[in-house]
Amino acid sequence: MTPEIQTHLVTLLGYPVQHSLSPRMHNAAFAAQGLNWRYVSTPVHPSQLQEAVSGLKALSFSGANVTIPHKEAVMPWLDAISDRARHVGAVNTIVTEQDGDSTRLRGDNTDVAGFLSPLQSHEDALAGESMLVFGSGGAARAVIYALLQHLEPERLTIAARSPRKAEHVAIDMAGFDGRSALEVMPMKKAGPAVRESRLVVNATPLGMEPDEERTPWPEVEDFSEGQVVYDLVYAPLETRLLREAAARGARPIGGLEMLIAQAAAAYEQWTGRAMPVDVVREALREHAF
Ligand code: NAP
After folding, report:
1. pLDDT per residue over 67-88, tens digit each?
2. pTM of structure
3. Known catalytic residue: 71?
4. How far is ligand 1, taken at its centre, from the CA of residue 185, in Å?
5. What are 77's strand-pairing partners?
6. How many angstroms separate the CA atoms of 229 and 132, rounded?
7. How many angstroms is it from 221 CA to the middle of ligand 1?
């Protein structure tokens, strides 16, 4: 028997979690739609991740988000994993599903849809073109998978400070790389690839506050009109990379829209409703941006 639930609870599993904007976004959306749902943050030490995941079932949580450092480590403790989360190699969303008397925890990755959302209006211009991603961490994996699956680039360069790690990402993604587009290079040597790419994505924390003077690519003359430069960093809203690329005529996309879109994709799976994204944007504006 499923226990009667007064309030639906969703939590963020991470370590640490106190700086996350997810509670602000989801609670604003729940309130706007009059839903008796609450989003909380629960710091979970890596040594207690398995117990925390079991606890989601025991406490009848309706779902969860997963953040650093648990996005990969959580996978063995779930009952099912979506194809895209398996292909990316990371789960950022858990959905609780009821199957008769049994409860199932399904892992998904909404960073893929979140990343693609602000690119929709640029799809025609970008499909099949050359692209470049700075970084080879968890977010870069979602970006690379999304680009290979949806925009089929002619060339997709992973420019990373640790090329060996990036090679592993390229190997993991090879099954989605029908055009043999992937290439790996050290960041320092990425000049020609930056110049030739129609889409340049920053998937490193470079430029994030408080180190706002940093940028993954200080060679501003490599940016030009006709390029889209997309920074996953969302604090500050306008990073040095975006400001400098825009000054050279490139079209900038900041990380906030991805943040909202990945949250919206999770919200819809938990509640069955579309997230009121304007309310969420407003709630974030009231934050310190
Ligand atoms: P991650 O797994 O820790 O990966 C970070 C990547 O950046 C790694 O490849 C790392 O290289 C590289 N890096 C770190 N410091 C660097 C430096 N000083 N110079 C060159 N490369 C450096 O982190 P993540 O989860 O992928 O997140 C990356 C960024 O994306 C963060 O700023 C995060 O806030 C942002 N993000 C935004 C959204 C959104 O919704 N807008 C979603 C996810 C992530 P090594 O492998 O050599 O360490």
Report:
1. 999 999 999 999 999 999 999 9
2. 0.95
3. yes
4. 17
5. none
6. 10
7. 24
